[in-house]
Amino acid sequence: MIRIKEQIIDKVKEIQDQDLLEELLKAVQLEHEIDGIYELSDQEKSAIDEGIEDADKGKTYSNQEASDLVKKWLKK
């Protein structure tokens, strides 16, 4: 893997096209951002699956009903 990195670095050093260099930089930065993506816990995954099942069964709330529930929960 080190050899591949060295080859990439050597090739990048030869590039004179500013636009291409900017695009390469974006790609490298994106890779670092992807590494920081949040991983869901098993409990969170389970809650999402439960919500999807409820929605598939028609167990949903309108926007107004959901707002009313949130207001009720916040008063507790």
- Globular, elongated, flat, extended or rod-shaped: what is the shape? elongated
**Alpha plus pi helix count:** 4
Order of helices and strands: HHHH
Radius of gyration: 24 Å
- N→C terminal distance: 56 Å
SS elements, strand count: 0
State mean pLDDT (0 to 100 scale). Answer: 89
Helix content: over 70%
The biggest sheet, with number of strands, parallel, antiparallel or mixed sense and barrel status, is: none
Instruction: Name the poorly predicted regions.
Output: none
Could you explain how this protein is built, in words?
With 76 residues, the protein is mainly alpha-helical. The chain folds into two domains: 2-35; 42-75, no CATH class. It has four helices and no strands. It has helices at 2-14, 18-35, 42-56, 63-75. The longest helix is centred in the middle third of the chain and has 18 residues, at 18-35. It is elongated. The relative contact order is 0.05. The model has no long low-confidence stretch (mean pLDDT 89).
